Amino acid sequence: MSLDPATVRRIASLARIRVTDAEMVTLQAELNGILGWIEQLNEVNVDGVEPLAGAAGMAAKLRADDVTDGGYPERILANAPDRAGAFFAVPKVVE
Amino acid sequence: MSLTDLTIVEARAGLRGKKFSAAELTLAHLEAIEALNPRLNAYLTVSHSRALAQAEAADAALARGEAGPLAGIPLGIKDLFCTEGVRTTAGSKILGPFVPPYESTVTANLLRDGAVFLGKTNLDEFAMGSSNMTSAYGPVENPWKRRSDAGAVLVPGGSSGGSAAAVAARIAMGGTGTDTGGSIRQPASFCGIVGVKPTYGRCSRWGVIAFASSLDHPGPFARTVEDSALLLASMAGHDPKDSTSADRPVPDFAAACRRSIKGIRVGIPREYRADGMPAEIESLWQQGVAWLRDAGAEIVDVSLPHTKYGLATYYIIAPAEASSNLARYDGVRFGLREAGDDLRELYERTRAAGFGAEVKRRILIGTYVLSAGYYDAYYLRAQKVRALILRDFSDVFSRVDALLTPTAPSAAFAMGENMDDPVKMYLNDVFTVNADLAGIPGISVPAGLDANGLPLGLQVLGKPFDEGMVFSVAACLERAAHFSALPTLRAGVTP
Fold first, then answer.
1. Parallel, antiparallel or unpaired: strands B402-406 and B455-462
2. Beta-carbon neighbour count of residue A25 at 10 Å?
3. pLDDT-above-70 percentage for chain A
4. ipTM of the predicted structure?
5. Where are the domains positioned within chain B?
6. Which of these is catalytic: B21, B131, B183, B444?
7. Would residue A31 count as lying in a domain?
8. Among B355, B381, B423, whose Cβ lies nearest the Cβ of A17?
9. Is residue A56 domain-resident?
10. Does B468 score more than 90 pLDDT?
11. Does residue A90 sit within a domain?
């Protein structure tokens, strides 16, 4: 299957990446190239195969539901592009 | 012999024998970095004063007789490992101003054992690439030169190209990397050094900037197999902060390097041949087979029938995981921010300005294969093929102890080559990617030179958590290969 410009726009919007019209042309060709190459997986017979999410091969570990870290807002906020007191600041979301 | 030429094993003995101090050893490396790095661009950040302070602490510990196993050993750290108080960029503009308030577990383990960090090494942006060309901070020059064309600037491989080039050029005694599709083993092969990708879960991923969480494997670079074993022993170990970290003891990997391989069974997978692969790589592989046979190993022809589907599987799973992991770079809590009138515009402009072309491509592919209506056709199918790739390895490892293959389908290529089509670049990882999908340990050992005088690596793969066997076979190859060629650009040689 081949991605049309509208689909590429939709994906870019889902991914929250602004794409210019010039970039669109290249991206569409490249993404279609990659997806076309990936199509080879359709020749593999996967009937009855359980999907594998990861190689760890271990059951997820449980730990006590305790607070073991935190309590240092200054360190957390040290890299913030913008802040207001002990909070991250963003453009107004609600009028 | 200059201090920068020593192996880690030799430097440890020299430090303990008081032949030189850790401060002298670190200074020799810092001076070599100053001379070579403007050309190689292997380091993005050089931690001059911090490294000297760590070296002085190592000297004090050595004097007290309390030195850790890596006391005073100068290393280069891939700029994907968060280092407390030292800028960490992941090779991306989006993390340009980021200074982590914490230390990754792997680097904390190395510091616990007394290592000195010379600085942070260059890499493909977010570890996405096989040439180091996608770094937002410029490419890395491979210190090796083509005999026929000494003017050509070659890539060091990727994504851990800075660490590999630094270790090869002797501006680091060892280094750290991460391997998601081949990003330790392929640059090791291109730069004529040893690179180890351990079993998934052996080294904690905590504090390593995530690319594809089910595939990311931290591991070491060094110039000898035993040096790499010493580094891995320090980096490895259970970490409660990483839920996929393996709660298993860490064996003595260095001892495994001295173990005989007499009587072991080594499989030669017939599918590890690529279109257009130089005849030299095929013949080096056959040479490797002969070396192992001479050392007493039994050679077995084996088949891993789903090998050829590994790359396509990877290019669904890795972008899918990346699209999720990289969602956190939104200009709000850390890193770059581009102003916008509303929050959505802020996100979109920040991510458009902060990510490079390859990262954007992968995020978009990942977003697409996970989106409603396509999940089953792409992502779920890829997870099933991944299960078949693991099954191939499990079947074969019921009959053999290790596998021998080439590491990469070519020697280092020049900057500009393989750049016209993303898929062409992806093919670099054709021999390494399946071990990442299956989580099994692997190593690349420099084993020979091509007609142009460029290094070529052989790869040894082993059973999960049997790095010991991988080290035994790799050390055997190393002893037989007597690899002693040196890169053109290296410490002590005026560029």
1. antiparallel
2. 12
3. 95
4. 0.95
5. 3-263+412-481
6. B183
7. yes
8. B355
9. no
10. yes
11. no
Decide if B384 and A91 are in contact by the 8 Å CB cutoff. Answer: no
pLDDT of residue B380: 96
> Do the Cβ atoms of A17 and B439 come within 8 Å?
no
The model's confidence at residue B422, banded by pLDDT at 50, 70 and 90, is confident
Determine which helix (DSSP H) or strand (DSSP E) holds B194, and give its type and residue range. strand B194-197
Please count the structural domains in chain A.
Answer: 1
Rounded Cα gap, residues B244 and B117, in angstroms: 26
Helix (H) or strand (E) run with residue B298 in it:
strand B298-302
Q: Which of B78, B93, B120, B197 is catalytic?
A: B78
Residue of B92, B104, B135, B159 with catalytic role = B159
Subunit contact A56:B439, Cβ cutoff 8 A: yes
Q: Establish whether B159 is a catalytic residue.
A: yes
In angstroms, what CA-CA distances link B395 with B201, B391, B400?
21, 6, 9
- From B198, B182, B132, B146, select the one nearest B427 (Cα to Cα): B182
Distance between B485 CA and the closest CA of chain A, angstroms: 37
| pLDDT the model gives residue B198 | 98
Q: Which of A2, A18, A47 to mutate to test the interface with B (most CBs of B within 10 A)?
A: A18
The residue segments making up the domain with residue A9 are 5-42
Q: What is the pTM of this model?
A: 0.97
Alpha-carbon distance B186 to nearest alpha carbon in chain A (angstroms): 21
CA-nearest residue to A73 within chain B is B101
Q: Taking CB atoms and an 8 Å cutoff, what residues of chain B touch A72?
A: 101
Q: Which residue in B98, B327, B93, B337 sits closest to A91, CA to CA?
A: B337
Query: Which chain A residue is nearest to residue B439, measuring alpha carbons?
Result: A55
Q: How confident is the model over B244-266, as pLDDT tens digits?
A: 999 999 999 999 999 999 999 99
CATH 3.90.1570.10 is right for the domain spanning B3-263+412-481 = no
Residue A9 lies in a domain: yes
| B95-140 pLDDT tens trace | 999 999 999 999 999 999 999 999 999 999 999 999 999 999 999 9
Amino acid at B295: A
B78 annotated active-site: yes
The predicted model gives B397-401 an average pLDDT of 98
